[in-house]
Amino acid sequence: MAEEAKETTSVNAADIKELPAVASNFYFWCAKCVGDRYHKVLAHPTKSSAKLECEVCGKKSTFRLVLSGTKKKVTRTRKKAKSPEEVWNELKDKTDISQVEPYSMKKKFNAEMAIDHPKFGLGVITEANGVAINVTFQDGERSLVHNRQ
Ligand SMILES: [Zn+2]
Fold first, then answer.
1. CATH tag, 13-64
2. How many angstroms does the Cα of residue 33 sit away from the middle of ligand 1?
């Protein structure tokens, strides 16, 4: 078979819109021969890939169609960030809000207590240390002082 081009140009996979048929010959890059070689198409493992075998060295490689125009797969691991209000609602469900303490910086609070803040409203304390509490309010988390003598 005569070489048509002096310079072997690599097959541009993006230009190929259809998989080569099984058992047909497909001119494709061989990593072992380090050149474009005829490959036997062995199978189509997926709708967009073909298993190839180099006719020269026998190396098997996979050709994948570049599916242009198709939408990229949406990753299922999409983590939806919870809004402050969702977090607040969840905390409210877990907390006994029948016992709401009015907030005062002079009082000492503990985690998991519900407080009523004159400005921010109902909040749930997620963390408490000697001087500060982290409180989740409907519009977000705030750090407040407490236990101030
Ligand atoms: Zn090869």
1. 2.30.30.140
2. 4
